Amino acid sequence: MNTSSRGRVTINFSFEKREIIILSVLLALAFIVRFILFPLPGYKVDLNTFSSWFNTAAQYGPRVFYNIVKWSDYPPLNIYLFWGLGSIANTFSLFGTAQISYLIKLLPSFFDIVTTGVVFIYLRNRLNFKTSLIAASLYAFNPAIIINSAIWGQLDAIYTFLLLLSLVLILASKPKLSIVFLVLSLLTKPQSIALAPLILFLIFKKYNWKTLGTSLLIGVATLFIVIIPFEWSNPLVFLSNIYLGAYQGYAYTTVNAFNLWALGGLWVRETAFLFIIGWMLFGALVVFALFVLQKRFSISGELLAIFIAFMLFFGFFMLPTRIHERYLFPALSVLTLAFPFIKKIRPIYIILSATFFMNQAYVLYYLNLDTFIAPGDPVVIVVSLINLMMLMYVLALLWDEFKGRPWLSSKSIKINSDKKAEVKKCGD
């Protein structure tokens, strides 16, 4: 990895012309694959809802968007994107035509591509070109990623890009920028909160209270800059109404997520007890993960931080109630960063990609039939059990790290020979 005179990791954007051309071809192919799949039907209700929001944002602008639509569970940063793309749709008279779904799917597909670029840049600063390109390809052509963006037309790629950038920036010793992108991700999707404990911990761990306080102030400033066009009289009430209103609308143990709660059926009415149990389980996972990071950071460092970022996303998908089928999405992008380095996470990536694809495809099939998946459905049970076993395996790996049994090894990776400043062993 590239290091400065103070030993901090830096990000190098200067690559050979040949590398830039090959990467551009890869990204172009990844987009073409998605574009070819655009005509496949997503979920009509979601696409119609997005079309309506795009149209409203284009006609009235962000300022009064929430007053006009009456209901929207998407936070404010999305509305700027709805405004821009809705204006394009208006210009070309796409509303009410089949092509509007192409425009909707174009948005997350674009963010899939730039996320792939972030993965490549991160890895290329640490590894040789071939290895970095292969790992980036794993994300660019992952069927579980493609079905979400290019077929269903969901927007999970947007906040995933912002979260991944936040993680990469804190690893590159850019705490203030990291907080900015973390806040932007929270203003895109509330489930971004899963990464917040790690980012805040790393800022404090690597710096001090002053840097943490300054970074938080910058984060608050970022929040207000984004929401001021919507609301300046009482912004906290404005945000709480959006987030809590959306969250309270899904008071079920699982909203089509094949997780721990799916073993008891999907869309089961949640009780206060189950709600508390779910969040206690996730809270315990967060505390244990950060405790291990505190103990082992000086030894396992960056790779352990990445693994824990993945754990937080995976645990967020598996343990709390009210989780949707798509909330595993950011876990795969983070896992891609560690794929070339850690042999033991490679089967995790492959298996979770398969179960995540199955979860989305199965749910989308039933949604388009306009029916619920029956309790005890064998596909739901089997996939949920596989996910649960993978969570147990991930926790076992973290326990090994806690006990000092090293497994964060990258000996099989040939580090690029021209990176003389690179550490001898990734993770040290």
Describe the structure.
With 428 residues, this protein is mainly alpha-helical. It has a domain at 250-416. It is 66% helix and 1% strand. It has helices spanning 17-37, 44-60, 65-69, 76-91, 99-124, 129-140, 143-152, 156-171, 175-186, 196-206, 209-227, 235-248, 272-318, 329-338, 346-368, 378-402, and strands at 254-255, 323-324. The protein has a two-stranded parallel ribbon with strand order 1-2. Helix 5 (99-124) runs parallel beside helix 8. The protein is globular. The termini are close together. The model is unreliable at 1-8 and 410-428 (pLDDT under 50).
Q: Work out the helicity level.
A: 55-70%
Succession of helices and strands: HHHHHHHHHHHHEHEHHH
Count of runs of 4 or more consecutive helical residues: 16
Count the strands? 2
Determine the structural class based on helices, strands and strand pairing.
mainly alpha
| Major sheet strand order | 1-2
**What's the mean pLDDT score?**
91
Low-pLDDT residue intervals, each spanning 5 or more residues: 1-8, 410-428
Form type: globular
Largest sheet entry: 2 strands, parallel
Indicate the radius of gyration in whole angstroms. Answer: 21 Å
Give the topology.
Elements: H1 17-37, H2 44-60, H3 65-69, H4 76-91, H5 99-124, H6 129-140, H7 143-152, H8 156-171, H9 175-186, H10 196-206, H11 209-227, H12 235-248, E1 254-255, H13 272-318, E2 323-324, H14 329-338, H15 346-368, H16 378-402
Parallel strand pairs: 1-2
Helix pairs in contact: 1-5, 1-6, 2-4, 5-6, 5-7, 5-8, 6-14, 7-15, 8-9, 8-14, 9-10, 9-11, 10-13, 13-14, 13-16, 14-15, 15-16
